[in-house]
Amino acid sequence: MAPAADREGYWENYAVSYYIAEFWNTVSNLIFILPPIYGAIQTYKDGLEKRYLAAYLCLTGMCKT
Question: Which segments of the protein form a coiled coil according to its record (predicted)?
Fold first, then answer.
């Protein structure tokens, strides 16, 4: 969807940011993204098996099921 000349922002519903249409929805979803990323970083630092790293990355939604 191309931006229209009469609308502000790239998509719709811009109350806080030009690039994020539903700002609070985005912020509330960070609780599902940040802990698995932290777990993946810790797994890498601790030198655990790659399967644990893959599991954490899949929890962030980076892997397709």
Answer: none
